[in-house]
Amino acid sequence: MTSTDQFSTRSAAPGSPGRTPHGEVRRGTLLGFAAYGIWGVFPLYFDALKPAGAWEILAHRILWTLLFCVVLLLVGRDVDWVRPLLRRPRLLAGTAVAAVLIAVNWVVYVGAVTSGNTSEAALGYFLNPLVTVALGVVVLGERLRWMQWVAVGIGFVAAAFLGIVGGRVPWVALTLACSFALYSLTKKKVGVSLDALHGLTVETVVLAPVAVVLLLVVSAQGGLEFGRHGGVHTSLLVLSGVVTAVPLLCFAAAARRIPLVTIGLIQFFTPVMQLLCAVLLLGEHLPRERWIGFGIVWLALAVLTVDSLVSLRGARAARRDLPVDDCPR
Asked: Greatest CA span in the chain, whole angstroms?
């Protein structure tokens, strides 16, 4: 899932809703729900790829996504950005770091789903906004409002509670939350010079040699499942490129049209759907202690959401009170 978050959307967020045509806002909202809806049913898709393992699925996802991106670029004759990019080593290095982080996120997520731990993966994406806020303080030196501090504190309590009652640290959830938050932070730091399609293309180019090596290693160990389980299974592996790229492109289009607060609210759609898939469709059982842990996380997210809405209302009120002569031009 690549993924949505505070860092990446902050750079792409549009202006105030009042300056965005109503039709564009509605289109952006639909695109946002499309992106998060597709990410929400990822557990069903990756479960259908079994018995392929996480490393093989990761390799296919990288290579077929790269092919899909290249086809889009060639059809749109959108290649003029490549040569200037090669003259920007800092941007290339930052994109390479982002590629490694998103690869970690992908393989951990797929491994969680295929091993029957979808609910813990969903927990990771519930925790992601809280980790994002914490990184904003630690790395970017941002100041939190008191409600944000409360939300982050509750989030840490939830993680500690789940670790204690579960007898182990919820590594899958924490790795997913941290890897995606760090990925978003990296994208924020390298700037917005690359749009979604260009960025995904470069990231998959960086990862392509690793993907080839992974397929060779899996094949040498006799574990390559591609082409062994009929046309439907093979087609699903090939379609992993489309399945990866489409929601990312939908999200990028949505982020340009709707406010950050709206993006923040829609993003909870994904882990809710993932959790429902895990419990209702994939047959995962969550003990009472895990439900309590989820409840604590949801409390933190409710506090964070209220803070965002209050902040947005205050910003709108401030704009209404701004004297006409002081308005920026």
From this structure: 72
Burial of 230 (0-12, 13-18, 19+ CB in 10 A): exposed
Helix pair angle (118-138, 171-189), 10° resolution: 40
Distance of CA 40 to CAs 36, 125, 131, Å? 6, 10, 20
What CA–CA distances, in Å, run from 17 to 22, 137, 231?
8, 27, 47
Q: Please give the Cα distance from 166 to 294 (Å, whole number).
A: 13
Half-sphere exposure of 64 (CA within 13 A, CB side): 21
Mean pLDDT of the chain: 84
CB of 254 closer than 8 Å to CB of 24: no
Does the pLDDT of residue 15 top 50, yes or no? no
The pLDDT tens digits of the residues spanning 67-98 come to 999 999 999 999 999 999 888 988 899 899 99
Average of per-residue pLDDT across 278-293: 89
Compute the distance between CA of residue 232 and CA of residue 174 in angstroms, rounded to an integer.
33
Question: Does the global pTM surpass 0.85?
Answer: no
